């Protein structure tokens, strides 16, 4: 009998519900503070200090006024500006709140008509250019926000820009060259031109 009493006295008390709940609450609070407060503040502070331009959204300014971001295209339609890729975002073209493509299959007749209409409009606006329209000028991207076009697409529009602005073709082509970005290695992708940056540079060139 005495042995049984000694074993019962040495047994730990049974854990209660609160003994499980308290550490769970403490860990939840600590992890929330670490990952939801401390980590975002630290990473934001470092990125703002070291990569301020990127951290602020890669904004392009004209005399201190924000004209856009180099990461999001804009719907240029005037003859004296370079045009970007078509955008299929809902409500308005290049709507960053509704990023997405048209979801049309290549077998969809509506896609064929849309491409044909774009080709006709581009040929009409660029009568001095080659009848062979670069494909990226008539097809929308998956995001609908692409800010870049191929070098060929920019050069294809060069004569229209030169005529509309009273510039020489050489001036316009030099602007394209100056605003062409190439990947570190050719297999990563082709060279591209940011349309907003190109048009921003275009506005700073005077006619001869």
Model description:
It comes from Ewingella americana (strain ATCC 33852 / DSM 4580 / CCUG 14506 / JCM 5911 / LMG 7869 / NCTC 12157 / CDC 1468-78). InterPro entries: KdpC (IPR003820). With 208 residues, this protein is mostly helical. The chain has 2 domains: 22-55; 59-204, no CATH class. 46% of the residues lie in helices and 8% in strands. The protein is built from 8 helices and 5 strands. The protein has helices spanning 2-10, 17-50, 52-55, 109-125, 151-156, 158-165, 169-178, 195-202; strands at residues 59-62, 65-69, 148-150, 180-181, 192-194. The strands form 2 sheets. The protein has a 3-stranded antiparallel β-sheet with strand order 3-5-4. Helix 6 packs across helix 7 (169-178). The radius of gyration is 29 Å and the shape is elongated.
Q: How is the secondary structure organized here?
A:
Blueprint: H1 2-10, H2 17-50, H3 52-55, E1 59-62, E2 65-69, H4 109-125, E3 148-150, H5 151-156, H6 158-165, H7 169-178, E4 180-181, E5 192-194, H8 195-202
Antiparallel strand pairs: 1-2, 3-5, 4-5
């Amino acid at each position: 009998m005495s042995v049984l009493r000694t074993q019962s006295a040495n047994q730990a008390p049974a854990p209660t519900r609160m003994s499980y709940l308290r550490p769970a609450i403490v860990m939840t609070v600590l992890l929330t503070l670490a990952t939801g407060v401390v980590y975002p503040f630290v990473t934001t502070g470092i990125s703002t200090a070291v990569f301020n331009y990127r951290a602020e959204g890669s904004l392009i300014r004209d005399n201190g006024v924000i004209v856009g971001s180099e990461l999001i295209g804009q719907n240029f339609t005037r003859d004296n500006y370079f045009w970007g890729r078509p955008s299929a975002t809902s409500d308005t073209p290049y709507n960053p709140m509704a990023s997405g493509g048209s979801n049309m299959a290549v077998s969809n007749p509506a896609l064929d008509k849309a491409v044909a209409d774009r080709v006709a409009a581009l040929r009409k606006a660029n009568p001095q250019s080659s009848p062979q329209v670069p494909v990226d000028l008539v097809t929308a991207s998956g995001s609908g926000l692409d800010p870049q076009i191929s070098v060929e697409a920019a050069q294809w529009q060069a004569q229209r820009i030169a005529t509309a602005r009273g510039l020489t073709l050489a001036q316009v082509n030099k602007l394209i060259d100056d605003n062409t970005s190439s990947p570190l290695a050719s297999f990563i992708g082709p060279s591209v031109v940011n349309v907003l940056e190109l048009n921003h540079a275009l506005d700073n060139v005077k006619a001869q």
